[in-house]
Specification:
Residues 130-151 and 227-306 have low confidence and may be disordered. The longest helix is centred in the middle third of the chain and has 28 residues, at 278-305. Strand 2 and strand 3 form a beta hairpin. By secondary structure, this protein is α+β, with helices and mostly antiparallel strands. It is built from 16 helices and 9 strands. The protein has a 4-stranded antiparallel beta sheet with strand order 2-3-1-4, with helices on one face. A 3-stranded mixed beta sheet has the order 6-8-9. 22% of the residues are buried. The protein is flat and about 85 Å long. 54% of the residues lie in helices and 12% in strands. The chain has helices at 6-29, 37-56, 60-77, 85-107, 113-130, 166-177, 202-209, 230-240, 278-305, 313-337, 346-369, 375-378, 381-391, 409-430, 434-439, 472-481, and strands spanning 155-160, 180-186, 192-198, 219-223, 371-373, 395-401, 406-408, 445-455, 458-465.
C-alpha cells in the first residue's frame, strides 16, 4: 500500500503560512522599547514550529534559515540582548524569505538563493555582533547551547529512545543537537540512545522530543558533565566549516550530522553512564514524570479547546451544491403536499413542514461556511503600509475597524486588488510628509483607516486618511487631457 505524502506536505505548508502570518502580525505590533515577553515567545514558537516541521519533511533550506532566526530570537527573549528596530526589520525580511521558500516547495516557484544567503548573513551578523561574549557556531547539530567559559557544559544526559523509525531518530538528533553537543549510539538493532551535553534542562529535551514521540516513552538519565577540549573542539568546527562548507577530510564521527544514515556503524561506543545517587536519580525521574503528566494534561486541554478544522474549498462547494439539490427536492415535496387533505394527512403535512424548516436552517448554515471575516483582507495591509511609509519617509498610523465583518470568500478575493490600490494611493499621495504636516498644524504621523460594516442589506468598505485630500484642479486637468467633458 502506497501512502500519498502530498496531503501531509500540504498540511505543513498551510500551517507554515499561518505561522508566518502570525509572526508578521506580532512583529508589526511589537513595542521595540518595551516588548511584551509573551509576544516574543510567540514569535519564537512560530519559528521553532516551522523548523521542526521542515526538519521532519527534510526541507533543509527552511531548517537552515529558521535555525539562525530562532537562535537570535532566543537570545532576545532571554534578555541576552535588547530588541531593536534593526532586529524587527531583519525578522520581517526572514519571514519573506521563508514564505518564498515555502512557495518554492509548494508551487515550484523560483527561490532567490542570493536573497536567502543575504538574510542568513544578516541574522548571523546581528547575533554575533550583539553577543561577542557568547559566541555561537552555526551547524545542523550543534550551536544553540553555549558552553561555559571553562569549556564545559553544565549537564550531560543519556537519552534512550523507544523503537521509532530511522527518520525520526535522525530528526531528533538534529533537533537535540541544537541544544549542545550530541552523540548517537545503538542500544540494539531497533533502538538508539543519545548522549547530549548541554546547558539546557530536561524540560527543554522533553519539549523537543514531544514533536516526534510521547514523553513517557523516553528514558533520560543525567550523567556527570564532561569538559570539552578547546583545541579539539576548535579543530572539529573548522573542519566542518560551521555547517556552511564541505569538510576538508572525512570526519570520524557520523558524517550525516543526524540527517542521513551513517555509512557504517560507529566503531567506538560511548562510555556507559555513571549512575547518579539514588536521591538525585529519583529527583530527576520525578521531575520528568511531573513534566510528562503536565504535558499530557496540556495536550488534553489543547484538544478540548480546538474549535476549527481545515477543509478544502472544493469540499465546501460540493456540500453547497448538494444542499441546493436538497432545497429543490424539498420545494417539490412541499408543492405536491398542498393538494392533500389536511385532516387525512395531518402527520404527513406536519413532517413536510418540519422538513422545510430544517432544510432552510441547513441552507443558511452551509452558506455561512463560505463566509470569511474581513480580517483576511485587512491583515495584508499593515506590512505594506509600514514598508511603503518607510520608503517614502512618511509616518503613518494604520487602523482598522470591523475586521470581524463577514463576506463571501469569492467576493473577498475580488476586492483585494482594488483595496490594495486605494491603500497605496492614500500612503503615496494622500498623507503628506512629516514636515508638510507639521507646517500645516497637523501631527507628523498621518492616520490611515480601513473599515467594514453592514449598512442595510449591504456591506460598506471604506478607506480614509487625514491627508491633504484630492486636488480638484489636477483631477479636472487630467480629465480634460483624456478628452472628458468637464464643466
Amino acid at each position: 500500500m502506497t501512502i500519498d505524502m502530498s496531503q501531509f506536505f500540504n498540511v505543513f505548508f498551510d500551517e507554515a503560512e499561518e505561522l508566518l502570518a502570525e509572526m508578521e502580525r506580532l512583529l508589526l505590533a511589537v513595542d521595540v522599547d518595551s516588548p511584551d515577553i509573551e509576544d516574543l515567545n510567540a514569535i519564537f514558537r512560530a519559528a521553532h514550529s516551522i523548523k521542526g516541521g521542515a526538519a521532519t519533511f527534510g526541507l533543509t533550506d527552511l531548517t537552515e534559515v529558521t535555525h539562525v532566526l530562532e537562535s537570535l530570537l532566543d537570545r532576545i527573549r532571554k534578555s541576552e540582548m535588547a530588541l531593536t528596530s534593526e532586529h524587527v526589520d531583519a525578522f520581517l525580511s526572514a519571514k519573506d524569505i521563508l514564505k518564498m521558500q515555502v512557495d518554492g516547495h509548494r508551487l515550484q516557484t523560483a527561490v532567490d538563493q542570493d536573497a536567502v544567503a543575504d538574510v542568513r548573513m544578516m541574522l548571523q551578523s546581528l547575533s554575533q555582533g550583539a553577543a561577542a561574549a557568547l559566541p555561537e557556531r552555526e551547524g545542523p547539530v550543534s550551536g544553540a547551547s553555549v558552553a561555559s567559559n571553562d569549556g564545559t557544559y553544565s549537564h550531560s544526559f543519556r537519552i534512550e529512545l523507544p523503537e521509532v523509525p530511522q527518520r525520526d531518530v535522525d530528526a531528533l538528533a538534529a533537533e537535540l543537537g541544537l541544544l549542545g553537543s550530541i552523540e548517537k549510539e545503538p542500544i540494539d538493532e531497533k533502538r538508539w540512545a543519545f548522549v547530549l551535553r548541554t546547558n539546557e534542562s530536561t524540560d527543554d529535551i522533553i519539549a523537543i522530543c514531544s514533536f516526534v514521540l510521547e514523553p513517557e516513552d523516553l528514558k533520560i538519565m543525567e550523567q556527570p558533565a564532561v569538559a570539552r577540549q578547546s583545541g579539539s573542539a576548535t579543530k572539529s568546527e573548522d573542519e566542518l566549516g560551521y555547517g556552511f562548507f564541505e569538510p576538508l577530510e572525512t570526519p570520524k564521527e557520523d558524517p550525516g550530522y543526524g540527517f542521513f544514515e551513517p555509512l557504517e556503524p560507529p566503531k567506538e561506543a560511548v562510555p556507559p553512564p555513571v549512575q547518579a545517587s539514588a536521591v538525585n536519580q529519583a529527583d530527576t525521574t520525578g521531575s520528568i514524570e511531573k513534566k510528562n503528566l503536565g504535558r499530557r494534561e496540556g495536550d488534553r486541554n489543547a484538544t478540548q479547546e480546538s474549535s476549527s478544522i481545515r477543509v478544502g474549498i472544493e469540499k465546501v462547494d460540493q456540500l453547497i451544491n448538494l444542499v441546493g439539490e436538497l432545497v429543490i427536492t424539498q420545494a417539490m415535496i412541499e408543492q405536491r403536499s398542498e393538494s392533500l387533505d389536511p385532516m387525512a394527512h395531518e402527520k404527513l403535512l406536519a413532517s413536510v413542514n418540519q422538513l422545510t424548516r430544517n432544510t432552510r436552517a441547513l441552507q443558511e448554515a452551509v452558506m455561512s461556511i463560505r463566509m470569511m471575516p474581513m480580517d483576511y483582507v485587512f491583515s495584508r495591509f499593515p506590512r505594506m503600509v509600514r514598508d511603503l511609509a518607510s520608503k517614502l519617509d512618511k509616518k503613518v498610523e494604520f487602523v482598522t475597524h470591523g475586521a470581524a465583518t463577514e463576506l463571501d470568500k469569492g467576493l473577498i478575493e475580488r476586492i483585494i486588488d482594488p483595496l490594495t490600490h486605494l491603500v497605496r494611493n492614500s500612503v503615496d499621495h494622500g498623507i503628506e510628509l512629516p514636515a508638510v504636516r507639521a507646517a500645516s498644524g497637523k501631527s507628523e504621523t498621518g492616520r490611515l483607516s480601513l473599515s467594514a460594516g453592514h449598512q442595510g442589506g449591504n456591506i460598506v468598505i471604506e478607506v480614509s486618511d487625514d491627508g491633504g485630500g484630492l486636488n480638484r484642479d489636477k483631477i479636472l486637468a487630467k480629465a480634460k487631457q483624456q478628452g472628458m467633458a468637464v464643466s
